[in-house]
Specification:
This protein is α/β, with parallel strands linked by helices. The chain is built from ten helices and 15 strands. It has two domains: 119 residues, no CATH class; 136 residues, Rossmann fold. The chain is globular, with a radius of gyration of 19 Å.
C-alpha cells in the first residue's frame, strides 16, 4: 500500500479528509491524463476549497480511459449497459478494491464471517465484469459458509438457504436487484430475520418505483423490517449504505456534494435537490471527483437519492426514478 493510500484509509476526521483531498487532487492532475486535460480545459485556479475542485462528468468513463498513464490494471469493471454503451473502470489493484469494500461492509453491515451472504443478482451475472458481483462474490467467500452463494432466479432455493441458516443462528444478508426482490415477494416468504440490501433499479423488467414505495413493498412482501440500499456504481470503488430511514451514510474517505441542476459549477443548499457529486478517495488511481447523473439532497446525517436527470441512461445501482 502506498503512502497516499495509507493516508486515505487512515482518515478519521474532517481535517484529515480535507488535507488528503488536496493530496489526491494534486496526484490526479499530475498522473491522470484525462482528468488533467479536463482541469486544463476549464482553466480553473488551484482550488482553495473542496467546492472549487472540478468534478469529472461520469460519462467520461464511457468514452475515455480514466486511469493513470501507462498503468497496468488487474481488473476492468463494466457497467450493466442498460442505456447503451458500457462504462469501464480500470482498477490497478484487486487488493486495493478488496480492502475498500471489505472495510465499508464491516463498518455498516458487520463481519462477513458471522453472516450467510446470498446474492440475488441475475442481470449482473449475465452481463459479466460487474464490480458488484466481484464484491458480493468476495463477501460470500469470506463468510466461509456452505449456504452462502449466488441464487440466480431460484427463489425457493434462497428461501431454503435462509431457513437453514437461521435455524443454526446465522445472520442472513441478501444482496438483491430490485426486480428480483419483487419477484421474491410474490412467494410471500417470511424473512423477518434477514438483512436485505437492494442494489438498484428495475433494468426495464418492472415499473419504476420511488425508493420509499419500493422499500415499503419489500417490507410487507418479505415480512422484513431491515431493508437497506447500497449506493455504488462501476465508476466508484466505495459504497454508501442506507439505514432504515433511507438515509445514506458514507465512510470516512467518501463524501457527497449536491450541485445545482442548471449550473454544474455551483452547489445547492442543504435540503435542496440537485445533481450528486461524489468524492471517493479510494478512486485514487482513476478519478476521485465525479459528477454523476443522479439526483439527491443532503439531509441530517447523510443524503437521499431522489432519482436521475431526465434523458440520462438508466443504469447502475439505486437509480430509481420518481
Amino acid at each position: 500500500m502506498t503512502q497516499l493510500e495509507q493516508d486515505i484509509f487512515s482518515i478519521d476526521n474532517e481535517l484529515d479528509f480535507e488535507r488528503v483531498v488536496y493530496e489526491v487532487y494534486d496526484y490526479q492532475v499530475k498522473n491522470s491524463p484525462v482528468y488533467r486535460e479536463y482541469v486544463k480545459q476549464l482553466n480553473r485556479k488551484t482550488p482553495q476549497s473542496i467546492h472549487q475542485i472540478p468534478f469529472l462528468p461520469i460519462s467520461f468513463f464511457k468514452t475515455h480511459r480514466v486511469a493513470e498513464e501507462d498503468a497496468v490494471n488487474e481488473l476492468i469493471f463494466k457497467s450493466s449497459g442498460t442505456g447503451g454503451d458500457r462504462s469501464q473502470h480500470f482498477v490497478q489493484s484487486a487488493e486495493h478494491y478488496q480492502h475498500t469494500f471489505r472495510s465499508i461492509y464491516k463498518e455498516f453491515i458487520g463481519d462477513p464471517e458471522e453472516h450467510v451472504v446470498l446474492g440475488l443478482l441475475p442481470n449482473y451475472l449475465d452481463q459479466g465484469d460487474s464490480s458488484l458481483v466481484y464484491m458480493v462474490d468476495d463477501l460470500i467467500a469470506n463468510s466461509k459458509h456452505p449456504l452462502s452463494g449466488f441464487v440466480l432466479d431460484d427463489m425457493t432455493d434462497l428461501i431454503r438457504r435462509y431457513n437453514e441458516a437461521t435455524q443454526t443462528g446465522k445472520q442472513v444478508v441478501i444482496f438483491g436487484v430490485a426486480y428480483s426482490l419483487l419477484d421474491l415477494c410474490e412467494l410471500k416468504p417470511d424473512l423477518h430475520r434477514a438483512t436485505v440490501i437492494e442494489t438498484g433499479g428495475m433494468k426495464g423488467r418492472r415499473k419504476e418505483l420511488t425508493k420509499q414505495e419500493l422499500h415499503e413493498t419489500l417490507r410487507k412482501g418479505l415480512k422484513c423490517d431491515r431493508i437497506m440500499s447500497e449506493y455504488g456504481m462501476t465508476e466508484l470503488l466505495s459504497q454508501a449504505y442506507s439505514n432504515a430511514n433511507g438515509i445514506f451514510e458514507t465512510c470516512n474517505w467518501m463524501r457527497v456534494l449536491i450541485r445545482e441542476t442548471n449550473d454544474p459549477f455551483s452547489f445547492a443548499e442543504e435540503g435542496k435537490t440537485g445533481g450528486i457529486n461524489v468524492i471517493d478517495l479510494a478512486n485514487v488511481h482513476s478519478c476521485s471527483f465525479i459528477a454523476t447523473q443522479d439526483l439527491g439532497r443532503i439531509v441530517q446525517n447523510g443524503f437521499e437519492i431522489m432519482g436521475r436527470f431526465d434523458h440520462s441512461d438508466l443504469r447502475g445501482c439505486n437509480l430509481l426514478v420518481q
